[in-house]
Specification:
- By secondary structure, the protein is of the alpha/beta class.
- The chain contains 25 helices and 33 strands.
- Strand 26 (604-607), helix 20 and strand 27 (631-633) form a beta-alpha-beta unit.
């Protein structure tokens, strides 16, 4: 994926040095803004910019890819894989990342390529909260007592052996998700239920009673330099959601100096030496107690506040200049800034007044409000539940803090409290969740332009009442596409467990809470395969409970017979039985394969999987034009070539597939190519895929329903949407199962839930 914005190269001979921004930005507004600023400040210094991210997030953050010279789908949650990918290409001058979860991949890549960066072991240590606590305590810094626990029994033993209060938190997390104050054993079950991953070890930590601050800074020449101390405000426990920030904090000079000394000494003790830092701490009656340490910029719009308070500061540019040996000058704080978050009570929004006046205020540096009438405000459990913020600049910290609070308070958000549900003695119990994984070899190897697939992981998620299956999902994960089976299983288990208590199987609209939960999971960056697996199980349960086939529960047109393309991987013989042929291209023998197709009396679908560059297209264009295929899928790597491709093939439908994973990506595919291939494993299930297909239908685009190599249940699940597609490329189960390769099939809708594939009798000569 290459952005259209041209690189700004420096004067002089030779290529410009490259910044590799690992992990890009997340889907939230703040994360996108941070990544775009980091890229803009790199390009202002004459650096070429390349961004990597998970494929789905790349598509969901077009502003980030547009700000970069190039973008690649590389999973930052695999540090070794990211480093190996980077080592196989021309070396960048810098490896950098702005997201918490990407810091280990940044460090691993920098170490592998010999670039400036933090030692990988130091980054792992600070990201593992108990290990960081132990290292700081060993170096002589005040730390709260902490214990790693595997289950509730161990947690109760911690409470019994110490005096509270305590804090229960994930071992590795962000945004205060799953962090809860506990004052006694009775509150422990609720705290454990709120952890993001109920199966993972967690921490029980001594509660620190003090005033909270954070310290923002940058490393210059390997030494930490403090830019500002930030004062924090939080909502009342039991949760720890930040509601406001002010910088610089109003502190006596001696206390500010003591904080700066403690933080810089701790960073040195932890062996951090590169990039940015954000360190949390408490001022207590006994002195400074250090909290969590992060090797990245602080959240909460601090990246917007710092440049205002320190005029002339380019936060990320300072990192680049230092790493490249250029002069670095850090400006002093001469102004102040503050952030205030909206915190309306939970419930349904009835009205919003005063918002436009706030947005137009001249002191506002940034403002966003993500709720409107009809939306639901959640109960505040973590930073992800915040619904908006106002960031302001002023001459003094007191003025900034007062103005931010006044502007937020001037927006009147009227909320209708949610009515408590009446107790239902007949309600079904919360189902149990079971996830299994089985590695399974393919019936034959499958080769496309950029990989050969031999094995997939089959994941099954079941919702159970005892041993009775209430709903079931099943998918296949292939590492060649960046699909990590065990990681998907963990994410799906956590997501399904959290949804089980909030998504009843019956009711007037059983689909609505499933949709809401999955949309939140997408915003929280739960991977698309895990969302699809979970969605399958919950929709299957809802359809079974309603006594309906799934397509009818969702109000879809009946799928009818599913007529298949005959997919021919690279290197396999081409059958001549009259069926539509989907020919995989993008290999060294494309010219020979295309010549062999001349005269074939069958509809042709050619799929190059982005395997052609400009030279390939010019070489193969005469043959493709002569064949006049019905469909040309993902023909070229560079989207800038698509207008020429479409002009050369006026009667051919051009589709995009790779990277089409969100409604925004689908819109881009329709706009640039005129068609798209929708795969549920990329979109995260039927519900988001349905939105993309509906929009494409309204635009008159060509629609293909596709798949990866998937088990029959996943294929039948996707086939619920066959009535909305022009082409059905749903034969991926033939390589995964023992099912016969046939021209088509129907769905057995006689039973409620996800219908099963039904093949025609042998003497029918086709699907039933």
């Amino acid at each position: 994926m290459t952005a259209a914005t041209p690189p700004r190269t420096p004067a002089g001979p030779g290529p410009a040095p490259e910044l590799l921004l690992i992990g890009g930005g997340g889907a939230m507004t703040l994360s996108v803004d941070v990544a775009v600023q980091a890229l803009e400040q790199a390009r202002a210094r004459g650096l070429r910019t390349t961004v990597t991210n998970q494929a789905g997030t790349l598509t969901a953050t077009p502003e980030v890819t547009a700000a970069a010279d190039a973008a690649h789908a590389v999973d930052f949650t695999d540090p070794a894989g990211t480093a190996a990918w980077a080592a196989a290409r021309p070396a960048p001058a810098l490896a950098f990342g702005v997201r918490e979860m990407a810091q280990e991949a940044v460090a691993a890549t920098a170490a592998a390529l010999g670039l400036p960066g933090n030692p990988p072991e130091a980054v792992r240590r600070v990201r593992t909260k108990d290990a960081c606590r132990a290292a700081l305590a060993a170096a002589g810094f005040r730390q709260p007592a902490v214990r790693l626990c595997a289950d509730e029994t161990e947690a109760r033993s911690v409470l019994a052996a110490s005096t509270g209060p305590w804090v229960v938190k994930p071992r590795d997390g962000a945004d205060s998700a799953g962090v809860r104050k506990v004052t006694g054993p009775d509150e422990l079950p609720a705290a454990l239920a709120g952890l993001p991953d109920p199966e993972a070890p967690f921490l029980v930590e001594e509660f620190v009673d003090g005033t909270e601050y954070s310290v923002e800074g940058v490393f210059v020449g390997g030494s930490p330099r403090v830019l500002a101390v930030t004062a924090k405000e939080k909502l009342d426990p039991p949760h720890f959601v930040e509601i406001g920030h002010t910088l610089p904090a109003e502190l006596p000079a001696a206390e500010r100096a003591a904080i700066e000394t403690a933080v810089t000494s701790a960073l040195t003790a932890l062996n951090l030496c590169s990039g940015l830092f954000h360190v949390e701490l408490w001022r207590t009656a006994e002195g400074i107690v250090l909290g969590e340490v992060h090797a990245r910029v602080g959240g909460g719009w601090i990246h917007r506040m710092l440049p205002y308070a320190l005029p002339g500061l380019e936060l990320y540019g300072t990192v680049y200049d230092d790493a490249l040996g250029r002069p670095v000058t850090l400006p002093a704080a001469t102004r102040a800034a503050a952030t205030r978050y909206f915190a309306p009570p939970p419930g349904r929004v009835i009205a919003v007044e005063g918002w436009e006046e706030v947005r137009g205020h001249p002191a506002v540096l940034h403002a966003e409000l993500r709720v409107a009438p009809g939306d639901t405000v959640p109960a505040y459990r973590s930073g992800a539940d915040r619904v908006g913020a106002v960031v302001v600049g002023a001459d003094t910290p007191a003025q900034a803090r007062t103005l931010a609070r006044r502007l937020v308070d001037s927006v009147r958000i009227t909320v209708e409290p949610a009515e408590p549900a009446e107790p239902d003695e007949t309600a079904a119990a919360v189902p149990d969740v079971r996830v299994t994984l089985e590695s399974r070899p393919l019936t034959s190897s499958f080769q496309i332009s950029h990989m050969t697939i031999e094995t997939v992981d089959i994941l099954r998620l079941q919702l159970l009442d005892g041993e009775r299956v209430l709903g079931e999902g099943e998918i296949a994960a292939d590492r060649g596409y960046g699909q990590d089976g065990p990681a998907i299983a963990d994410e799906a288990r956590a997501l399904a467990t959290s949804m089980a208590a909030h998504c009843p199987a019956d009711g007037t609209d059983p689909v609505a809470p499933i949709r809401t939960a999955l949309e939140k999971a997408a915003a929280d960056e739960v991977c698309a395969p895990a969302r699809m697996l979970t969605e399958m199980a919950f929709l299957d349960r809802a359809a079974r409970t309603a006594g309906l086939p799934l397509w009818r529960l969702l109000g879809l047109p009946e799928p009818g017979p599913v007529r298949l393309l005959h997919t021919v991987p690279i290197g396999e013989d081409i059958p001549l039985d009259g069926r539509p042929l989907k020919i995989k291209l993008g290999g060294p023998d494309d010219e020979r394969v295309l010549r062999g197709l001349l005269g074939v009396d069958a509809p042709l679908i050619l799929d190059a999987n982005r395997g052609w560059d400009a030279a390939d297209w010019e070489r193969l264009r005469p043959l493709v034009v002569a064949l006049a295929p019905a469909v040309l899928e993902d023909p070229v790597r560079d989207p800038a070539l698509l207008p020429a491709v479409r002009a050369a093939l006026p009667r051919t439908s051009v589709l995009l597939d790779e990277g089409v994973a969100t409604p925004a990506g689908a819109e881009c595919a329709v706009r640039t190519a005129g068609g798209l291939n929708v795969k549920l494993m990329r979109f995260g299930g039927i519900l988001p895929a349905l939105s993309a297909l509906t929009s494409a239908t309204e635009r008159g685009a060509t629609r293909m329903l596709g798949c990866f190599l998937e088990p029959p249940r996943a294929i039948a699940y996707a086939a619920q949407l066959a009535g909305l597609a022009d082409w059905s490329d749903l034969d991926g189960h033939f390589w995964v199962s023992g099912d016969p390769a046939v021209p088509g099939y129907t769905l057995d809708s006689g039973e409620p839930g996800i219908p099963r594939i039904r093949y025609a009798a042998a003497n029918d000569g086709g699907p039933a």
